[in-house]
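R.M. (postdoc): so does anyone remember the format we settled on? I'll just put the structure tokens first.
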């Protein structure tokens, strides 16, 4: 069982950001539904399409106050499928790549992705039901190969292959077009996580996580380790959302921080550490 955490600072901050992101991405769907169903009493002008909102879109493609933001992994698939790359795509992905490149790639997984939020709820439920599952079912780098495979398949088929089974896009399409495919995919992932292996989707299989893992090998923010304060209790490893093994180089004193591109900067390890040996902050991209 995961240890009782000494504080919940990062968990609370992440929940606020995760729910805010969820609401933001649900808003266009809700407003379109609101307009379509004619629930307009008392409003002078109700948006009839999502494009009339200051924000619209999904995690794959969105627009905030007219600034277009595109999911870099979806664009890589589009480029592979079309065997072409346009300036518009570059402009759309640049803010995302620069933002997560500076912070750390998988901060997207830890702080924004709604699937991670759901699977953290599955973790909680499994603990409540006292269900025991395996911790490591598939090696964490498998998602890099899944991402690469998706790009190769996109090039061969001329289609955006991950978008065909991505739980996030399928849920969006499901709400808009009444399809149940997204819900069924998500349910399958939840059941596998609940009954077979902890965090297998985010840790090992999600190609979007694979893309952000590759981007996360750079980044100016890290989990930093005060080796002298560490008592080697293992609490940080027990709660790690990415993979306990990524803490090993810091715990053994080989590195002064977590260097793996897998780290989500979720801060669960920082909250769990009873001796305050861990912290998150700016760090040199060249760790000692
Ligand atoms: S860093 Fe903190 S939680 Fe992790 S082993 Fe050391 S004392 Fe325990
Ligand atoms: S090392 Fe810490 S911050 Fe990074 S994923 Fe694991 S628990 Fe989260």
């Amino acid at each position: 069982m995961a240890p009782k955490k000494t504080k919940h600072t990062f968990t609370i901050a992440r929940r606020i950001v995760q729910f805010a992101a969820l609401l933001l991405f649900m808003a266009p769907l809700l407003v379109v539904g609101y307009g379509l169903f004619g629930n307009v009493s008392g409003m002078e002008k109700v948006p009839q399409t999502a494009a009339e909102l200051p924000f619209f879109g999904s995690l794959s493609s969105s627009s905030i106050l007219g600034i277009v933001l595109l999911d870099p992994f979806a664009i890589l698939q589009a480029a592979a499928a079309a065997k072409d790359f346009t300036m518009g795509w570059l402009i759309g992905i640049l803010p995302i790549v620069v933002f997560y490149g500076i912070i750390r790639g998988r901060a997207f997984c830890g702080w924004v992705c709604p699937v991670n939020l759901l699977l953290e709820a599955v973790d909680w439920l499994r603990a409540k039901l006292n269900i025991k599952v395996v911790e490591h079912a598939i090696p964490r780098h498998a998602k890099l190969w899944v991402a690469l495979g998706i790009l190769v398949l996109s090039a061969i088929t001329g289609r955006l292959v991950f978008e065909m089974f991505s739980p996030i896009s399928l849920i969006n399409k499901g709400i808009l077009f009444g399809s149940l495919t997204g819900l069924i995919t998500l349910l399958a992932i939840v059941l596998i996580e609940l009954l077979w292996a902890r965090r297998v989707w985010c840790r090992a299989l999600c190609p979007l996580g694979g893309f952000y893992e590759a981007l996360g090998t750079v980044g100016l923010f890290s989990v930093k380790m005060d080796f002298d304060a560490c008592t080697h209790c293992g609490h940080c490893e027990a709660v790690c959302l990415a993979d306990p093994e990524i803490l090993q180089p810091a715990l053994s004193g080989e590195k002064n921080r977590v260097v793996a591109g897998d780290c989500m900067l979720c801060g669960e390890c920082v909250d769990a550490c009873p001796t305050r040996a861990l912290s998150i902050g700016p760090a040199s991209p060249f760790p000692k």
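R.M.: ...and that's the designed sequence above, right after the tokens. Also worth knowing: Confidence is low (pLDDT under 50) at residues 37-43. The radius of gyration is 20 Å.
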